[in-house]
Amino acid sequence: xxxxxxxxxxxxxxxxxxxxxxxxxxxxxxxxxxxxxxxxxxxxxxxxxxxxxxxxxxxxxxxxxxxxxxxxxxxxxxxxxxxxxxxxxxxxxxxxxxxxxxxxxxxxxxxxxxxxxxxxxxxxxxxxxxxxxxxxxxxxxxxxxxxxxxxxxxxxxxxxxxxxxxxxxxxxxxxxxxxxxxxxxxxxxxxxxxxxxxxxxxxxxxxxxxxxxxxxxxxxxxxxxxxxxxxxxxxxxxxxxxxxxxxxxxxxxxxxxxxxxxxxxxxxxxxxxxxxxxxxxxxxxxxxxxxxxxxxxxxxxxxx
Length: 304
Ligand SMILES: *Cc1c(COP(=O)(O)O)cnc(C)c1O
Description:
Blueprint: E1 9-12, H1 13-19, E2 22-27, H2 37-50, E3 55-58, H3 63-75, E4 79-83, H4 89-97, E5 101-104, H5 109-119, E6 124-126, H6 133-139, H7 141-148, E7 155-159, H8 164-175, E8 183-188, H9 193-200, H10 223-231, E9 234-239, H11 241-255, H12 261-271, E10 281-286, H13 294-303
Parallel strand pairs: 2-10, 3-4, 3-6, 4-5, 7-8, 7-10, 8-9
Antiparallel strand pairs: 1-2
Helix pairs in contact: 2-3, 2-6, 6-8, 7-8, 11-12, 11-13
Bound molecules: pyridoxal-5'-phosphate.
């Protein structure tokens, strides 16, 4: 039994009416820890567990850390998550609820990550949030589930942070013989490291992250994500923070599910008129995210 669940695939009447194409939602917001991350992280943790790992270490104060904490608790392996001082109380609370040991260190993710790496002994496994082939093959199960239902879409729409989800979805399309299906990779303007890589013709580090979509906040995408764009039809699209926030609020009303702005970025394509006009059947990956409260989304929205 994998640690993630097989999530519902539903046709969205409200989004289909706005987008003027049939929108299929893959509801990974319903994973037990609130995001698709459990697919890849759960797979990686199971393999490290089988190899005899005695502890799991993560440096993510976001959904990757939550997925590691969840996987560790399920497998009976202690988890340590090192997070920077900027991590919200909400995120620390969720990690603690999963029974992880939370260490707050440094003013940025880089510093937290440094400490996490030095804490990783030879008997522990360090779980990267996006740059690991084990994660990608776990994320690919999202496409396996759609293929099992025989619901072949014309396009897949998803969000990109460090690119792990993109790598996994492309792997899933390939292993199901769906390599002809294009992918639209969406980011917010203030976190557009994939877009920067496409422009530069190679992965590059962007100066900083200025978006509320913190789960998309990787300054540089992994090499494999860029590689995917050279071997698969991947279109890069950016939206504003306000588009992503509006999408979160409208999606809550339409489907009664609260997601992070990181997920709102992909949802925004269905809410922006004509963005998906060319496609009859759209698979929209509702990647989820547990770290933003509704009050926080309203606050961000009021400030824009
Ligand atoms: C991690 C995450 C992303 C981005 O995934 P990558 O694999 O880093 O590209 C998008 N949305 C949510 C909610 C996430 O947790």
